[in-house]
Design a protein that fits this description.
single chain, alpha/beta, Rossmann fold, 8 helices
Length: about 170
Amino acid sequence: MTHPVVVLVGPPASGKTHIAQALAPLVRKSVIDTDKMIVRDHGPIPEIFETKGESVFRQYERAAVIDALASDAVVSLGGGAVIDPDTRADLRNVPVAMITITEDAVAHRLNSNKRPLLRDGLDSWRVLLAERSTWYNEVADRVFDASHRPVDTVAAEILEWLEEES
């Protein structure tokens, strides 16, 4: 059965996508980003939230996660994918790297136009992190902080961990 080289999880704006893009060439794999899959198949995420609601978005997200987890790639999950208990169960069978970031490092990245659940900026981010922290920790095999560190450095650390595990 095919499965991802590694799955990146973590709060919104933690750098999962950029880290995945830096890691993929190091492991000679492609990147699959579930948020980008949703946008490709269903349109802009803010528009989905506005016209169809969060529950429909979560259905799209779950379908994207199922597809992504069946690939031999570096997978970056949307920040809320871990909400789904089936997704958390599926992640037990693959290497999962949790990307963390501090409030001061994330503050300048929060664009509420792109992120419908972060309309109140850092305050919204704090609430989401508090709600989801238990789930991130549940699925994570290793934690990597991306607060004030170059993306390439974090990607290299994930590669080192993956090589240790194999």
